[in-house]
Amino acid sequence: MRVADMHCDTLSVLLKQEREGQEISLRENEGMVSLEKMRRGEYGLQTFAAFIYTPDTENALEEALMQIDLFERQMEANQDWIRPVRSYEEILQNWEAGYMCGLLSVEEGGPCKGNPAFLRTLYRLGVRMMTLTWNFENELAYPNRSQKDHPHGIVPEGEHGLKEKGIEILEEMERIGMIVDVSHLSDRGFWDVYEHTKKPFIASHSNARAVCPHPRNLTDEMIRALAERGGITGINYCAAFLDEDGTGAHPGTLEEMSRHVQYLMKVGGEDLVGLGSDYDGISKAPEWGGCDGIQKLAERLRRDGLSASQIEKVFYKNVMRVFRELL
To answer: Taking the CB of the first residue and of the last residue of the chain, which one, N or C, has fewer CB atoms within 10 A?
Structure first.
């Protein structure tokens, strides 16, 4: 079954290896995502995030540009297998021609530095999706707060959300056609996005908080609001966001994934759920391994009673519905 995944951190891993003097290849590598693994997993589209993993926003734009450059170099080197896409129509054209698709996103709003000109520059370079924060406060907004002595290391932030610059960037994202991603954003920030937007937005890699109480996951109220707006959330394969106690003591399991999918459908409907693996950004691969093993999830969902059409929605059709509207 065709796969459309809304989030992985493979670019940052490859760039780190390149900086260390290693030869890198998106086609074949030991990480969770490679083109060979994507082919075996029947991938149609992978969203590659330029992941900014430091609170030093001074160098955030430079880091994003380095990862975007790496993405372009790898797309060019592997154009016989995969092509970069910037619109819904380009995705369809590539699939018809037999190519996989690579879509660019940015994880962390720091590269914008609160300046819409930088946002528009990222858009011209092909970025079509952006999370407003990672785990640090930036010029745009607050994430759910880091707290070292908390069991999850993060606690919900219900008071602080979008800043004035964040609202300005948010409105410009809607205007130019860049998808707003609320994964990592504070609880208050989620509702600020809901209040200051009209179009669908997404949580590219977030699960259900009622199933796993990690603050990175969505509350039932958030799930219903996201569904009402026509958005989607992508199931995250990180064990700490899947298991019932939120500790992540073992690799994520198919049973846990299925439980989140079914719960999200129960609360938000079958049009709400997609895939957002967080591959190469999670500390340990799930029990089925890298992206080449994802069809095992389809088998599990089928065994747990989901229809073929529901599984297709989870695997790619819900993502394509939102992309059709926003890209």
So the answer is: N
